[in-house]
Design goal:
The protein has a single domain, classed as Rossmann fold. The chain contains 6 helices and 4 strands, in the order αβαβαβαααβ. It has a 4-stranded parallel sheet with strand order 1-2-3-4, sandwiched between helices.
């Protein structure tokens, strides 16, 4: 896709690596969320999408942006990568923690080329992840109890931060991981 963007528009200014799947809920929801219950194929699938997919997106975006000596790469990770989360599965948490370190590594590597790499560490949002499990009121309630703002966010609430990180307003930011989580990590 990056090759096509460069062919059509002559350059790539912004890439947004927004990938995430889950192997199921965490052990606070079900015994099926225990580490011992995670099947190898489910682990591999989460690793492939959440970490390898983000790596491939950063790698692909870095080629034309390095050549242009400018660009913005924004990555979605999770607060589950910043701290242990019993409501989400261990495969999800592990990959999101790895993505955070990948973002920091890429930021250091690409900074000399005028490219910023930053991450949004989202808390619970109503999305299609985990089969849209967050659309279930009882699931939202469980997550809301852990959030100081006492609610789960809507997808529109992430747009402002994403636009900031993609803009010139973030020209001196790189390697940052910014939580957008209703205050969940404020007391961590």
């Amino acid at each position: 896709m990056t090759h096509q963007v460069v062919a059509d528009f002559g350059r790539l200014d912004i890439a947004f690596a927004n990938a995430g799947i889950s192997a199921g809920p965490g052990f606070a929801f079900t015994e099926g969320g225990l580490m011992e219950s995670v099947q190898p194929d489910a682990w591999d699938r989460v690793l492939a999408v959440n970490l390898t997919g983000v790596f491939a997106a950063i790698q692909a975006a870095s080629r034309p942006t390095k050549k242009a000596r400018r660009g913005r790469i924004v990555v979605t990770t999770s607060v589950a990568g910043l701290r242990a989360e019993t409501l989400v599965g261990c495969a999800y948490s592990a990959t999101k923690a790895a993505v955070i370190n990948l973002v920091r590594h890429a930021a250091l590597e690409l900074a000399p080329f005028g490219i910023s790499v930053n991450a949004i560490a989202s808390g619970p949002f109503v999305t299609n992840i985990a089969g849209g499990r967050m659309r279930d009121a009882s699931v939202r309630e469980r997550f809301s109890q852990l959030i100081p703002m006492q609610r789960v966010a809507q997808p529109d609430e992430i747009k402002g931060l994403a636009l900031l990180l993609a803009s010139n307003g973030a020209s001196y930011m790189t390697g940052t991981v910014i939580p957008i989580d209703g205050g969940a990590t404020a007391g961590a």
